[in-house]
Amino acid sequence: MAVVTKKKSVTMTMRVDVDLKSQAEMLCDEMGLTMSAAYNVFLKAMVREQAIPFKIAAGDPFYSKKNMQHLKAAVSRLDNKKGMKHELIGEDDD
């Protein structure tokens, strides 16, 4: 007869955006997981791979906060008839 011993567990406390937490809980529920189980899956993968188990990148600079502000200002100028018309430069235009 095999003896099963239960491993000791600890409680973790972390701060998370309320909307992000809600979305994550809904997703976990759809997958049949608890948030605790999802965290454990993540931590086990991180330990196994000795790295964050997914790519972390800054993202497309087009969507940076600075560029989004620039684009919103440009759209506002166009909406207020204060924009300037420019000819497009294509790859074939040298």
Number of helices: 3
* Separation, N- and C-terminal Cα atoms: 80 Å
Task: Provide the gyration radius in Å.
Answer: 24 Å
Q: Which structural class is indicated by helix and strand composition? A: mainly alpha
H/E element sequence:
HHH
Please tell me about this protein's structure:
The chain is mainly α. 47% of the residues lie in helices and 0% in strands. It has three helices and no strands. The chain has helices at 18-31, 35-49, 65-79. The N and C termini lie far apart (80 Å).
Spell out the blueprint of helices and strands.
Elements: H1 18-31, H2 35-49, H3 65-79
Which properties best describe this structure?
94 residues, mainly alpha, 3 helices
Nutshell version of this structure?
The chain has helices at residues 18-31, 35-49, 65-79.
